[in-house]
Batch of 3 targets.
Target 1
Amino acid sequence: MDTLLSPRRRTLLKALGATALLAGCGEAPGLARRPLAALQGPAMGTVWNAKLAGPLAESLAGKAATAVAATLDGVVARMSTYLDSSELARFNAAAAGVPVAVSRETLEVFALAREVSEATGGAFDATVAPAVDAWGFGPSKAKRVPPAAELAGLASRIDWRAIAV
């Protein structure tokens, strides 16, 4: 005897329910005509893109683009490995054990890097930059295979546990 809960009927009901749910995922007719402002700008050697939608999109586009650019410029000023004046570059250039004053944002990034390094048992190590640069992937763009002796010397400079936050 077939009941409402037979496997065949259950499958049919699930399919109908999924169809009804998916039908609600379409775009509402009025939303397609909303004003849209496309923004973009340069940052960190690439390009950022953002889209604003809604009634104020066009009027806020200029302010939004300025705000995004200013925020990204701040990140570059603090975190760039290519600008000698950045907080990160100054930190990297300082002698071991010498305290370096940095912004709250940079300190938060350092603290998070330590947490991730610890959580991964050192698989993530924010201090690996000297080796990255030696292989040509950093600011020097060396384009060479570093000698084993050089890599051994760099190994002594790579240890996330040496960073005190």
Note: The chain has two domains: 34-79, 87-162.
Target 2
Amino acid sequence: MHPGQPLQTVGIISRPRRQHLSVVVPPLLKWLEARGVSAVYDEETASSLPDTSKGRTRQYVADSSQLLLVLGGDGTMLAAARLAASRSIPILPINMGSLGFLTSFTLDELYPALEDTLTGRSSVGQRVMLQVQLERAGSVIENQSALNDAVINKGALARMIELHLIINSEFVCRYRADGLIVASPTGSTAYSL
């Protein structure tokens, strides 16, 4: 969504098996439709509706939307951020989870926040996303985006590993440890506990 561009499609991504969805989603869809805004939603959201056939994959929802509305907690927000990273679309997080450090709006604030977004009275904060690439023997074996942090470790076995840390193609250091945590300015939810 760019400034001055009318909002036409909202994507809804929900936390799986959240009981309140059946109460929240149907009136939300009617509210959006009354304002000429179409909605596309994931399978989790569709499971709260009488017609579950309209649910799409989360990636499809992110790729088809100008704004992502996240109904869940921090985990759902982090998943949505990874999906939206390549398109840089805004995310409106509504806290319906157990942790809400990253989901700043409550259910009571859902409609006022959406109204502000539709009328251009809201501001969009930019967040840094981490792009993490794991290589072994010169081959890329993992490539991920993260809003808050990236953890690299040996796995279930607590053994030392040798790490070569390279940031933006610049060698930083080499060391032996049991892992590495790299946090963005958003920070890790775990730090807030």
Note: The mean pLDDT is 85.
Target 3
Amino acid sequence: MKKSITKIIIATLIAATMTSSVFAAKAKKPKAKKILVAVGNAYKPYCYIDEKGKLAGYEYEVLSAIDELLPQYEFEYEPTQFTSLFSGLSQKKYDAIAQQIEYNPDRYERYEFTKETYTTFITYITVLKETQGINSLEDLSGKTAYISNGDNSLWYLEDFNKKHPGKEIKIETGNLSTDERMAGLKSHRWDFTVSTKRDVESRNKEYGDILKITGKPVQTSSTYFLFQKGNTELRDAFDGAIRELKKSGKLREISIAVIGGDYTESE
């Protein structure tokens, strides 16, 4: 009888010890940190709201793939206007932002950039097909461009004007939709804009074959994810994930499936 009682006590102690170990293991498992990522909401096919009211596009697909590789983080998304991305990051509302964001010195002073890029972004002067005699920015003196607020081309054109007094380009800015921008070009309200070749091809499919790129690239750059200044831990985690996506071929697959070609390293 004593032996039976002893066995029961021992078994109970073992079970209790195992249960405690399980709870201890669970307690030690790090909880995923929630990360709020702001993404543009009106730049198809990169980031937009689909017919079901959900965030879609290349940025979202790449971010989802990064999220899968970073179990220490749990991504949450907030679609917003392009200009709100930067103000929100400056105010520490967001942990990261995304919308085909290019480098410029002003941004670099304020935010952390990934070291790894994930899309090329080569831009050209974009005009109506009937337009003649424009091959460079020097040919655009006195002419008017439309550039979206916050677009890196705005910084570049303003810098051009500073360096070319007397030959300035007129710049109109705003937050117009693609329909409105196309209407402005067709009505000759603006003489040109600045776009990537792939965006021009996309617009021509949607609005008729009315646009062309002209001259050499205005800018040859790439795109980055941005973070709060000093948050190198999150930046480094993104960099590691992007490198893995490149190595596995997943980033290339996403680019081809969503954008229509491999624009991850070159064009």
Note: The first helix runs from residue 2 to 28.
